[in-house]
Amino acid sequence: MALVVFLRGVNVGRHKRFLPAALAKDLAAYDVVNVGAAGTFVVRAAAPRATLHAEVRARLAFDADIIIVGGRELIEFARSGPFDRRPPASNEQRFLSVMLKPLASPKVSSREGGPALPLMYPSNDAWQVKTVAVSGRFVASVWRRQAGTPIYPNAAVEKQFGVSTTRNWNTVETVCKILQP
């Protein structure tokens, strides 16, 4: 099955800038598809994760966290319906955070002794980030725009679970379409 590569902390302002399309072209032997500018790639050719990790690392001019997950894992998480069926409110956006390291508990829910979901950050009626699903390396959250200083999903997820990189759910849907046989 295909793999999905997520780079953490790249192309943010003037920090760790690179051309994702050029990297995808450099990795053409692995049939790589670039998705957006945030460092998301679908690798359709079979490749060992360690080899792919080394190839990506060698082509970047800076050090970056590289997270590689199985395409099947991502599709299964997306199909699990981490968000309720209603569309997001006009002031909400959906996100997926991918953890640098797998969580100690593969699934977190009140049934399994972990924190009850959803987790609100801040934990009051004025929440800005609501974690709604957690499985393996994946954390689904909803970001609600509020007046004042914004709290972005990645910052809230990292406070709750550890180092991660975050993508808009639209990007995840695009990746899943590319992964379909």
What does this entry look like structurally?
- By secondary structure, this protein is an alpha+beta fold.
- It has 2 domains: 3-74, SP0830-like domains (Alpha-Beta Plaits); 80-168.
- The protein contains 5 helices and 9 strands.
- The chain has helices at residues 20-26, 49-59, 71-79, 153-161, 169-179, and strands at 3-8, 32-34, 40-43, 65-70, 92-99, 119-121, 129-135, 138-144, 164-168.
- Strand 2 and strand 3 (40-43) form a beta hairpin.
- Helix 3 packs across helix 5.
- Residues 106-111 have low confidence and may be disordered.
What are its keywords?
single chain; Alpha-Beta Plaits; four-stranded antiparallel sheet
Q: Summarize the helix and strand pattern as letters.
A: EHEEHEHEEEEHEH
Derived structural class: alpha+beta
Q: Determine the number of helices (DSSP H or I, runs of at least 4 residues).
A: 5
**Basic shape:** globular
Please give the largest β-sheet. 5 strands, antiparallel
Uncertain parts: 106-111
Strand content: 25-35%
* DSSP strand count: 9
Number of domains: 2
Proportion of residues in helical segments: 25-40%
